[in-house]
Amino acid sequence: MATEAAPMDEKAKRMRDLLSSFYAPDPSISTSGSSINASFDNINSTSFDADQYMDLMIKKSNLEVLLQRHVQMAAEIKNLDTDLQMLVYENYNKFISATDTIKRMKSNIFGMEGNMDQLLQKIMSVQSKSDGVNTSLFEKREHIEKLHRTRNLLRKVQFIYDLPARLQKCIKSEAYGDAVRFYTGAMPILKVYGDTSFQDCRRASEEAIEIIIKNLQTKLFSDSESIQARAEAAVLLKQLDVPVDSLKAKLLEKLEQSLDGLQIKPEEASTLVEHDDSSNDTESNDQHPAKIHEDAVRGFSEAIRAYREIFPDSEERLFKLARALTAMHFEHMELYIKKRVSAADFLGIFRIVWEDVVLMDEVLPEAALSDLSAEAAQVTLKQFVARMFSHLQQDISDTLLKFDINQKEAVEGELLKVVLEASQKAVLQGTTNIFQDFRQLLDEKTGIFIKMKDLISGWIQKGSQDFFRSLEAQFLVLSGKTSSSNDIEGKSSDKIHAGLILVLAQLSVFIEQKVIPRVTEEIAASFSGGNSQAFENGPAFIPGELCRVFHAASEKLLQHYIDTRTQKVSVLLRKRFKTPNWVKHKEPREVHMYVDMFLHELEDVGKEVKQVLPQGTFRKHKRTDSNGSNTTTSSRSNTLHNDKMARSNSQRARSQLFETHLAKLFKQKVEIFTKVEFTQESVVTTTVKLCLKSLQEYVRLQTFNRSGFQQIQLDIQFLKAPLKEAVEDEAAIDFLLDEVIVAASERCLDVIPLEPPILDKLIQAKLAKSKEHNHNTVSS
């Protein structure tokens, strides 16, 4: 047998049986299921037999099980006794509380029957006295009511007699509304007694009403009257049973013509949003254009309300007029924002338009003007955001083009630096200002703006994305890198100054590093989120993509600047090498003038990049830095002196040239063209490399005699020192200069270089001549 305690449900069942047996008058009705399914070993059953249960337990169980069952039954007996005791205590307390409650009820009810009898006697006494008063006053009350009816009748009669005089007074004061009210109020009496007792009054009243009808008809078709006054006249005529249906077409036509006076024209919009803070008197406010417009629209809406009541079958035409006025409002707003408009002015005119829509929507809710206006407002707001970015882009373009960049001012002065700083300020300050205006759109409390807050944020994000992409494309057009359908400021691509290209390249770097991160912070702080509907035609604001776009644009523009400068030098070199007959070239007497022009172009490049680009972190070690010499002449003289000591005659020069050819074969490969950095040194070095490469190619296309080769040798020898001073990669420059000499020797019919003393003498003469020229230029 199991020795575990009975489950909770069995214990609860046993407790219910116990309570049933305690409270039930007949033990046989304790529990329905217990008598049916009871067995002889169920101790809680009413048919339980203790002797059979004990016999069964002794037969089936050993001594240990019997002892455990004894302990278990003893514990159950103890628990049952405790539960029974607690049950008796709880019920006893309830019985005591119920007894106390019954006693209190008896004491409170005691004497209430006598009080109720007294109350009934008093009520009956009051009722009898009230009946006596009503009986005594009945005749007097009837007489008073009869006198009151007579008095009202006399008043009506007096009103009928006074009606003609009242109507004449209303005609003089033009109070036609009161006159119609008086006449329509007297009409029931005049219809009944107008042919007998009040015949004269009726005749005089009708004559006055005819005058009133004529005046109302005159007022109805008067162009000097307001729309609201005409509508009131039409209502009064209809109350007088004057047929106005025949006038419907003419009235509605005049109402339609009045739309011209309600339009907010672009040239008048600014005056509507101006606020005169200095004048607070009512007369000045009544004359304010915004107040005049509001009164006009209110009169128009009241006229629509009146015409709708007068002409119920003209609702569709009235709906059409209201929609036409709303559409014209937003069309004029689109024209208004085509010019430069601040956010405050835009919101001011928008509030006026929206108030007009609300006024007409209250009169014609079935016209669905709010839905029509919501769609038009979305279009207008989206165009305003796009216009703001377009104006900013135009400001940046104007800032870049307003300076007259010519060759002399851009190189000699600091004009490029001024243009760069002004354009950077235009971009940075312009984006700051435009986002301040956009915050005003989000802070606007007009209901339509609150509903479109997410849409506005989305339009601003997409507008920012499109703005930067358009600005990048415009930079490429301004630089002449790409073509445009419209000629920008009348300048073709071949007339664009190279300095402007350099400014655009550095400005692109500034936008990538400064402007786009700042705009990203602005959008994250105030314009995050957005509605997916605003992004259906393009992506939202993606700063990483824009940074990549402007990074690539800056590299394109910088390379375009280098190519432009190199192309100019290439034109110079092409003229130099295609003009003379190199086979019949005379002996060299001096360094050719193209060398001066070449160095002058490189000097211009150095001055331009110094204004726009920063210096590099790496600064090469120059010989002039170590020996303290500040003159180029001494450096060149030392170089020529060393060459003189190394080569003494032409035979040695030939062997030197042969050695150069051999050295070229075994020389370690030099990296010529590296990535261009946004530093002064990198741009100048790359430009020099490309120019020398062009020089080498032009040399390869010619055939030289001995003198022609010697002229090339002299020019290249003179270029070595100034080019090394200008660039940071001397090894590459040495290599390219050697390549030019090698190319000339390969194309020479009789390779005999100049002797070092002659070479040195010609270079010194050129240096002296250049020094004298510079001195004369400074003196003048």
UniProtKB/TrEMBL annotation:
Compositionally skewed regions (Low complexity) per UniProt: 626-639
Keyword Protein transport: yes
Family designation: Belongs to the VPS51 family.
Primary localization: Golgi
Function: Acts as component of the GARP complex that is involved in retrograde transport from early and late endosomes to the trans-Golgi network (TGN).
BP terms from Gene Ontology: endocytic recycling; Golgi organization; Golgi vesicle transport; lipid transport; lysosomal transport; protein transport; retrograde transport, endosome to Golgi
SUBUNIT field: Component of the Golgi-associated retrograde protein (GARP) complex.
Region (Disordered): 271-291, 615-651
Name of the featured protein: Vacuolar protein sorting-associated protein 51 homolog
UniProt keyword Oxidoreductase present: no
InterPro entries documented for this protein: Vps51
Subcellular locations according to the entry: Golgi apparatus, trans-Golgi network
GO CC entries: cytosol; EARP complex; GARP complex; membrane
Keywords: Golgi apparatus, Lipid transport, Protein transport, Transport
A Pfam match: VPS51_Exo84_N
